[in-house]
Amino acid sequence: METDAALSILTALAHPTRLATFRLLVQHEPDGLSTGQLVEASGLSQSTFSTHLAVLVKAGLVVPEKRGRQQIQRVSIDALRGLMLFLAKDCCEGRAELCEPLLAELACC
Amino acid sequence: METDAALSILTALAHPTRLATFRLLVQHEPDGLSTGQLVEASGLSQSTFSTHLAVLVKAGLVVPEKRGRQQIQRVSIDALRGLMLFLAKDCCEGRAELCEPLLAELACC
DNA sequence: ATAACCCATCGGATAATTCCGATGTATTTC
DNA sequence: GAAATACATCGGAATTATCCGATGGGTTAT
What we know:
Chain A is of the alpha+beta class. Chain A is 65% helix and 13% strand. Chains A, B: InterPro entries: ArsR-like_HTH, HTH_ArsR_DNA-bd_dom, Metal_resp_trans_reg, WH-like_DNA-bd_sf, WH_DNA-bd_sf.
């Protein structure tokens, strides 16, 4: 993952509404949720939420799929993996002693 | 990790200068770098960089240590682990099939 | 003491983000 | 075809972020 892509993802997640939306969609994998359901969950106006969603989609964290006049939204686990790999990369390369505690806790599952 | 703490970390990393600073410090673990060295690496004015550094410190990603009239900066691997755990948590809990690809690639080291 | 050095904070200008209601574009239903 | 539904996009107002030079506080060297 390039630095610009990582920055897009970090920026997308660095907002309460967008982070909550992302987490909600993770919990609803793999079915996803419609944009309308996400609007309702956000408590914001439809137009405001639409711009937030666009940020998530542009960053590649959320992938929309047309279904009639609705739009089903799903998260991209690939994008999340890319970000985590990017963040861990610098300590993984050549300094496994730093990376070890990272992985130890992630092995929870 | 609480949502607010995760948001602070994400916001801190969602800026080119701050992300580059964080990565540079990871590469210089465990010795760290002085604030002056970081200022030079950033290419920004001293005052501007100081505010960026303060964001990283407030988020807990960077820990300063006084050394004479200098200030040595080091990253907190704990904070990074906390963020990664937070991001992975929602898919780890009860849906190991989502989490598996995350861990598979992180096992690079 | 005085000067030099390192870094944080202040004041202020510019740019970006965030929010909303209103309007536009498809799609479905009647 | 007309009305209704789902969502995106357009203006515009308010807030926040970003940047800088200048100043201040504390530490070391002369």
